[in-house]
Amino acid sequence: NAQAATLADPSTLVVDTVGPVLTIGLNRPKKRNALNDGLMAALKDCLTEIPDEIRAVVIHGHGDHFSAGLDLSELRERDATEGLVHSQTWHRVFDRIQYCRVPVIAALKGAVIGGGLELACAAHIRVAEASAYYALPEGSRGIFVGGGGSVRLPRLIGVARMADMMLTGRVYSAAEGVVHGFSQYLIEAGSAYDKALELANRVAQNAPLTNFAVLQALPMIAEANPQTGLLMESLMATVAQSDQEAKTRIRAFLDHKTAKVRPS
Ligand code: 1HE
After folding, report:
1. Cα angle for residues 237, 126, 160 (degrees, 5° grid)
2. Mean pLDDT across the chain, nearest whole number?
3. pLDDT, average across residues 27-51
4. Fewer CB within 10 Å, N side or C side of the chain?
5. Which residue has the least CA distance to atom 35 on ligand 1?
6. pLDDT digits (tens, 9 = 90+) for 66-99
7. In this structure, are 165 and 231 located in the same domain?
8. Which atom of ligand 1 is nearest to the CA of 70?
9. Is 72 in the pocket of ligand 1 (CB under 6 A)?
10. Does residue 260 fall inside a structural domain?
C-alpha cells in the first residue's frame, strides 16, 4: 500500500563522502539496479540532508549497469490511484536531484533504461562510458514514463527522438548518446565513476553563487520568454558579480595568479 511504499531501504544505496563530494551508489546489482520503492525512499532521504561541506554529488551504479529502470515486480500490485501517487513520488525524488543545492553528476554504464534514464536526466551532468545504452521500453510494456521523463528527456534529445524510442523500442548506444545529448561526456570503459568524481571535484571549486546560478537560474531563464529571461540574467549577473568571491577570483586573474584558459 501507499504507506508502506514510503519506507526507505538503506541497503539499496551505498552513500559515501570523497572530499567535498557525496557519492551515491545504486546498490541492487542482482536486479540491475532496478528502482524499487525502498530505493527511491532512501534516495530521497539522502538528498534531503546534504551536509554543508558537500559541494557536489555523484550518482552511479554498482555492478555492470546504471539502472534497469522501474522495478517491474512492484508494478503489478498497483491500481490507478497508487500509480498516480507513485509517479508523483518519483517526481519529488528527481526534483531533489534537479533542484539540489549542489551540482549532481551521473556516471552511466550498461543499461540506462526507462526510469534509470529518467533519473539520469535529472542530473546536471551525465558522463557515459562506452558500455552505456539508452532505451525506453515503456511502449512495449504497455506503460508510460512516470519519473519526469516526458518533461526532461525531450529537452535533451528532442520530442521526435523520444517518441521514436517509445514507439519502436529504439536503443541508442553511448557513442550515439553523446552526439544526441543523452550525455555530455563519452569516455572509455570502466572510467565513468572516476571521470564523474574528477568533474565533481572541479565543480566543487567554483564559487557557490556561480553553481547556484547555473543550477537554479539558468534552467528557468532558458524556459522563460526572452524579455523575462534577459532581465533575470541581468539580475543574476549583478548578484554574482557583487559577491566577494567573484571579486577575489577576478583580482587573482588580474594579478596573474590563476590558470589561463587553454584548449584541452
Ligand atoms: C528486473 C528489472 C526491472 C532486471 N524490474 N526486475 N525496465 C525494463 O524493461 C528493463 C528490463 N530489464 C532488462 O531488459 C534486463 O534485465 C537488462 C538488460 C537490464 C539486464 O539484462 P541481464 O541479462 O544482465 O540480467 P537479467 O537476467 O535480465 O536480470 C537479472 C535480474 O534482475 C532478473 O531477476 P531474477 O530474479 O530472474 O534474477 C531480472 O528479472 C531482474 N530485473 N531489470 C524488475 N526493471 C516511473 S515509470 C518508469 C518505467 C520504466 O522504467 S519501464 C522500464 C523497465
Report:
1. 95
2. 94
3. 96
4. C
5. 31
6. 999 999 998 877 889 999 999 999 999 999 999 9
7. no
8. 51
9. yes
10. no
